[in-house]
Amino acid sequence: MNRKSTLIITLFCFILVVNAFSQPNYHYRYPTRTPRTIPGAIHHQPVFNSPKIQAAIILDVSNSMDGLIEQAKMQLWNMVTIMGRTTCSGARPKIEIALYEYGRTRNNPRRGYIRQLSGFTSNLDELSSILFNLTTDGGEEFAPQAIYTSLTELEWDNNPSSYKTIFISGNERFLQGPDYIRRACMLAKQKGVMVNAIFCGDRMEGVRLGWKEMQDCGEGRYSNINQNERAVEYETPYDDELMSLNEELNNTYVYYGNQGRQHANVQKEMDGKNKSMSKSAYVKRIEAKSNKSVYNNAEWDLVDKVESNPDILKKIDKRQLADSLQGKSNAEIEKIVLKNATKRAEIQKKIAEKTAKRNAYIAAQKIKSKQGSGATLETEIEKTIREQSATKGMKTE
Hints:
The chain is an alpha/beta fold. It is built from 14 helices and 8 strands.
């Protein structure tokens, strides 16, 4: 090799070395620096929507949990009623409920036998219908994976003032299946979701089986219930009148849309099923229906829709209106909607007054008889909502 070739090779190697050292070292983690504040600069704060209350209910549907499902059917209306009494800076937060089941053999094993029954929704009749169709079935119960699944699948609100919570219940060993507990804990903290574990059985037995794990890793609450406990039923002087008012209330709904008639039928069907299950559950459903911030059916009821969007009558396809509105002008339809809205408000006010008297009557009867029921899904969820929503600056009446 001549001298000229050697010089060229040496120069080429030198260029390679210099180039290598000039590239950033991706394996070195540079120390982060606090951005310098520039005097007079405008710093934009993140903009959030109005606060919400979001709750995911995760039910164990394995064998022996029939009592839990019965309690879940009843507690839905009490839960949303309590949420409906909550205010944040004087305003009523929007309420959204999601529903999951786990422990059913027929569910996909790759998903841990976990199935979403409903994403976040404000359609309470739909949720009630799902609960009434639930049955039990033996299977693997992967509780931590069910929590993690709900945290990743659901659209959790990003407003730090929103109250976001998960209620999971079961009666077997908590730490079953793949190791999701750490990931679930970390993700719950990142999203600001409070995870509450409810063991169906003796409290210390639940601790021994690991159900206190979620409380220990976050801001959630551990409690226990008797899933077969039945709440004490109280007859009151206000029951018959409340049921009559509910019939009047139903007559103020004016369906629209392709699924409108079906939703109206589901409303009446859920009235009947709740009434046949328990008078207490039925009256609590009626109470929830009297609160328009809780029970709102703008997706199928023209009265609720017009309140949220007054211009809808100018845009709606007349063919999607109820039979009673066919052939009528916009002015005539608007008059009918306004009449029903006024009547509904009057009925809801009467229901609110009667349920307040009924609740006071029952409270007095409990003191007089010194009789009460044990811990149930309803009592524990109510207690938890009251305590945890307060940490978000919310007030419950």
